[in-house]
Amino acid sequence: MTPSGDVLILSKRGAGGIRQIAPIVRAKGYRPVLVSSDVDDRNRPVCDAHLLVDWDRDELPALVRAAEQAEVQPAAVVNMVEPLIPWQQDIAAHYRLPGGQPGMRVLASKLRVREALARLGYDRPRFTGGPAGKLSPESVDFYPAMVKPSQDSGASRLVRRADTPAELADRLASVARDPQEGPETEVVIEAFLPGTEFSIDGPVLDHRFHGLFVVEKLDHDDARHHDRGLLVSPPVHDYVSVGAAQIETAVSRLCRQLALDSLWLHVEGRVEPGGDAALVEINPRPGGRIYRAAMRHRQQIDSVEVAVELALGRRPAVTPKPTPDRLIGMFDLEAMELGTVRVETEPAELLALPGVLDVRISDGYPVTTLEQENMVVCTVLGGRDLAELRAVAERVAATVRFRIDPMPAPTSP
Question: Sheet holding 145-149: strands in order across?
Fold first, then answer.
């Protein structure tokens, strides 16, 4: 098959779903081209070319020159990394590709998303924001509060709850001194929303968000704001489904306001029984970890493939075909110590357990910080009801064996 062009796949810190996206791009007759700042990028072997760009220092002309020198002709740009959204928009606009709408840049900032929603009349939760080193706890009169980097908090990195002004000061200081952040890092501070957390995945078509895959987070860690325990689809509580419909409407209004179209969103919200739902955040990418496999089992839709199709300017079929009379669950196990993960359990051992449909194991994963989710074993489960899913999750937890080896101390020069 003669390649029809090149698809730029953006990556930072090794993230970006390169190993999922590259085979899809190649199967559609295009060359996958990795764009990253690491000359020894571990994802280089799965792509056909590699463009080096310093995300923090370079500007768009540097990438354009690198593409010209490598004889790369971009036909699409695919990005699953939150802080690279401005780059994604600049590249798409320059080459006149899908994703070049100026409204995309709003999605790069949780603070700007909050402000845009407020202009539409969505005033929950209360919020404020600005540089971490300049925000003062005295300016916040709502507690508990959630603190998060506004432009780079994937895997809930540095997302923490603060119950008092002293805790808020500590949370802001931790962002300001983080080696990947700093005092100028934009932070959003939001009133903590009680209730049940949920997520919605789906495409934006004709400026309307289609929520195809709704997940209820039954055991969410509200202190660290990490996913924990069992996540289930469809929701087992009716009020969560009602709340998800409210958020779907709100996100559609935002997409119309920002002229957003032809992209995939992973949206998170919270809702209490009998109450109105409120949006937590919007991510312009498919849900991570093992969401893709769970959605394929539940809806027979490949979220990553649809995202690539949208980036190519195509109109993919997105008609769900849910399996009747079966719940789909996701159950992940997280490393809680620093070091290198060594998983002793084989995937086949877990797949042999009744009710286990899919497995992803991250053996050798380096846990360098506990300020983010570090999921080392992710599973998709199936069951007739919640009780059966809980039983399957217990079998998985009893079967998984892993240890954390300390990382070697750095050698002196």
Answer: 127-131, 186-191, 145-149, 160-162
- CA dist 270 and 25 (Å) reads 35
Give the model's pLDDT for residue 93.
Answer: 96
Residue type, 189: I
Identify the CA nearest to 369 among candidates 328, 336, 332.
336
Contacts of 163 (CB under 8 A, 6+ apart): 143, 144
Instruction: Report the pLDDT value the prediction gives residue 387, as an integer from 0 to 100.
Output: 97
What pLDDT, on a 0 to 100 scale, did the predictor assign at position 124? 87
Residues of the chain with pLDDT under 50: 413
The answer to whether 339 and 405 are in contact (CB under 8 A) is yes
Q: How many CA atoms lie within 13 A of 258 on its CB side?
A: 30
pLDDT confidence of residue 154: 63
pTM of the complete model beyond 0.85: yes
CA dihedral sign of residues 227, 232, 234, 238? negative
Q: Residues, the chain, total?
A: 413
> What percentage of the chain exceeds 70 in pLDDT?
96
Q: pLDDT value at position 392?
A: 97
pLDDT of residue 202: 97
Q: How far apart are CA 342 and CA 324, in angstroms?
A: 37
CB 390 within 8 A of CB 399: no
Q: How far apart are CA 61 and CA 6, in angstroms?
A: 18
